[in-house]
Amino acid sequence: MRCSLCGCTESKVIDSRQSEDNLRIRRRRECLKCGARFTTYEERETSPLMVIKRDKSREPFDRQKLLNRLLRACAKRPVSVEVLEKLVADMEYHFANRMLKEVRSTDIGELVMQKLLEVDQVAYVRFASVYRDFQDVDSFMEELRRLKTEQPATLEDAT
Question: What is the pLDDT averaged over residues 59-88?
Answer without folding.
Answer: 92
